[in-house]
Each structure stands twice: as C-alpha cells, then as structure tokens.
Amino acid sequence: MRAGVAEVLPAPVAPLDLAAAVERVARKQRGLAPRAVGKLFAFIACKGGSGATFLATSLGFQLAEAKTVLLVDLNLQFGDALSFVHDARPASTLADVARDIGRLDASFLAASTVRVAPNFSILAAPDDHTQALDITPSQVEAVLALAVLHYDFVLLDVGRAIDTLSIKALDHASTIFVVMQAGLPSIRNAKKMLAIFKSLDYGADKIELIVNRFDKKGTIGVANIERALGKFKLHTVPNSYKQVTASIDHGDPLMTTARANPVSRNLADFARVLSPRPAVGRSLFERLLGRGAAGPRLSSHTTEERHVVP
Length: 310
Description:
Layout: H1 15-30, E1 39-45, H2 52-63, E2 69-73, H3 81-85, H4 94-99, H5 106-111, E3 114-117, E4 120-123, H6 129-132, H7 137-150, E5 153-157, H8 164-172, E6 175-181, H9 184-199, E7 207-214, H10 222-229, E8 233-238, H11 241-250, H12 254-257, H13 262-274, H14 284-289, E9 301-302, E10 306-308
Parallel strand pairs: 1-5, 1-6, 2-4, 2-5, 6-7, 7-8, 8-10
Antiparallel strand pairs: 3-4, 9-10
Helix pairs in contact: 1-7, 2-13, 7-8
Keywords: ATP-binding, Kinase, Nucleotide-binding, Transferase
GO molecular function, one term: ATP binding
Domain AAA: 39-200
C-alpha cells in the first residue's frame, strides 16, 4: 500500500476482472465515481426457428428505453440479428473488430456498431462466413470485457453451435436464456443442451427457459415442460405469428409498430423483470388521500419458479 498499489488480483487473471480493475483505477484518477459493470445475457436456441434472435433484439429494444444496450451477434456464420430491426448494412462487423483488436477501446467499439435506437446498438456478425473462421475466443472475450464496462446490458445472440468460442462467451454470461417452443422436438433438443450446460458446470441459477409462441390451450403445458426438463425459471411468450413475422420481414421492431400486441406487452413486462425501474414515491398529499386504499396493481401470474404473462 505504501508503494501505491491500487488493485490486487489473483493469478491467473480473468480478462473481465482485469478490465474492470483497469477501469476502476482510471476512474479514480479522473475523479469519477465507479460505474457498475453491465449485465451479460446470452440467448441460445435449442432448435432452429425457436425465435432466439427475435427475442434478443426485441428485449434489447425494450431494455434500451431506460438503459444502454449492446447486442453482439455471435451467430458468426448465419447471424442476421441486425436485419430483424434495421434495414442498413453494417459498415463494420465483429470480424473487423477482431482483425484490429489491438485498437480496441470504447470509441472503436462504438464506431463499429450500428445504432438502431438512441440507447441500443448492434455489433453485427460478419457477412463473409470465411471471416468468421478468423475470430478467436480470446478476441470475443476482450470485446465483452470492454462492453460490460460501457453498457448497462450486453446481449449475446449465440446461435446454436456450442464450441470453444461460444463457451467462452457463455462462461461470462450472468444468465443464459434457452429459447424453445412447446413441442417434442424442441423439448428433446433442450434436454440435450441442458445436459451440455451441466457438463460445463453451469448451475441451474445461471439458466432460464423461454418458451416462445406458447399456447395455454396447447397439448404441452408448462407442467409437462418442467417434468421433462426439471425446475428452471421459465418464461412464456404468447403466439402472434402473423404480426411477428411481418415485423421481422420489414425489419421493424414489433414494439414500435404494434405496441399493443400481446407479444410486445409480454416482452415489456419481461424487460421490467430484468431491469426493475426505481419506484416513484408519492407526495404527502397523495399519501393522505390514498390512506387505506389499495393502488392499482398489474395483473400477472407468477410463481417462485416461473414468470408467465398472458
């Protein structure tokens, strides 16, 4: 301490821990209050067509109403997250950032993204699949280590491949959202994926299930899914195939074109669960008038193990 040591980290040092320590020291030197490290959420489909990209981009839009959000498209060979919400071609992609990783800083990262809303940016997957082969796990880790220091939420659209690169990203995710549908093929794939996660020592508290296009009157219900897969936190998203497909085809976020749609309302509620907004205190006058009267309540069906919004 007399020598002026500011941080002590155990060896070997994880890149995320090192980046956070450097940022803390830099802020102290600039006289700034430390910034909370952003949350890292990963979305992975257990079967093609489950809707993971739609949910990741849609929740990104919802979270960006109050927080800063970066979505990183890690579906390196077939990623098209940007096209779900924007019709422009990216000037830079993750491959360009990886190629110039020595230049990586907050400005370079921001300049490499496409800003699709004031608080929402997307770092696109490479257009050329051959460029994807040159991206390494350590480069992705460096990007994520920097991103969580400058964005409140970092969302990963992982794709379906579970390889060394995606595992490196999943290791650092605070929550992995496994996206599925209420069908037997999807449940079978989800079971395989959960077994892989167990072999990677991911605890049940790190994994949550999202059942997309859920029909409460369908033959497979929440109880059936829980019996097949075990007790995980489970979220359901209702089916609105026609409007959701139209929004994807036009590259327009559903919550901007159809805010009253049940899927939009569902994801808005989900975003509030992921990022609770501080309660606004009532004035003394309002408290006096409202004494003994219950205020309006948001109707929802919740249990300890699931969050289900009709």
